[in-house]
Amino acid sequence: MDRSLLLNRASWDERAPLHAASRDYEVEVLVSQPEHLSETVRFDVPRLGDVRGLRTVHLQCHIGTDTVSLARLGAQVCGLDYSAASLLEARRLAERCGAAIEYFEADVYQAERVLPVSTFDLVYTGIGALCWLPRIEPWARTVAALLKPGGRLFLRDGHPMLMAVNEDHRDRLQLEYTYFEQESPTVWHTDQTYVESDQRLLQTETHEWNHGLGEVISALLANGLQLSSLVEHQSIPWEALPGQMDKGADGEWRLRQSPERLPLSYTLQAIKA
Residue 10: which residues within 8 A CB-CB, separation 6 or more? Predict the structure, then answer.
């Protein structure tokens, strides 16, 4: 594992207990309300469809709130993440919710070493995941390897156009970051995570990469998947552009003025031929 991934894994290890304790991830709500679904999965349901009985793997599952939600929809789901601390919280949550979920610790690129290949009906990747991967092609190769013929990828993520906008400008949309995948990461330094917390992080450096929409689709096509659906959304589940967005009753954030100017997230589905 290279330096970038080691830095990111250390950051997720430190964030995991903070996220599990925060109201944002609704851990206690999931435990106390057996029918409750995470906001992310609630948004996904209309496009996700009926997943009852589907053998499902949730890649980059973090603390497992979306994984538990998929299980509540009837999926036979397991989760994969490279952060041991995240998986500790995910296992605790599954146990408290009475959900039979098995979790595996591995980098996405190494998923074939711990998961059975060509066996999954559904590969699910929740929002905010792909930016932590240096290259999109080996991710697409992993997805193809895990799916059985006829199996489906379900991906919702932040739109790469949004990721190219500098969020520090509160009065305009200004493209300053790369849209296309680059070998060198964008390096961030902060002692705060993205949930409300008084605790400051010790692991303050993280590395991210953007992946253009065409690059994602091309990588999937090159690995034997066929695009079945692509929807661009004018909303995203966090305040991606502070000072320019309003939060709706559905928990999604949208541009306050002229939301049609910029796609904020997208849902992509593809079938293994």
Answer: 203
Beta-carbon contacts of 148 under 8 Å, excluding residues fewer than 6 positions away, are 118, 119, 120, 121, 272
**CB burial readout 135-164, b (16+ within 10 A) else e:** ebbbbbbbbbbbbeeebbbbbbbbbbbbbb
Q: Phi/psi at 156 (nearest 5 deg)?
A: -120, 135
Crossing angle for the helix pair 84-97 and 3-21, nearest 10 degrees? 30
Hunting for tokens 């100017």 — which residue is that? 261
Mean pLDDT by 10 residues, the chain (273 residues): 89 91 91 96 97 98 98 98 98 97 97 97 96 97 98 98 96 96 93 74 90 98 98 97 95 96 98 96
CB 111 within 8 A of CB 82: no
Three-class secondary structure of residue 152 per DSSP: strand
| Token pair for 80 | 């994969």
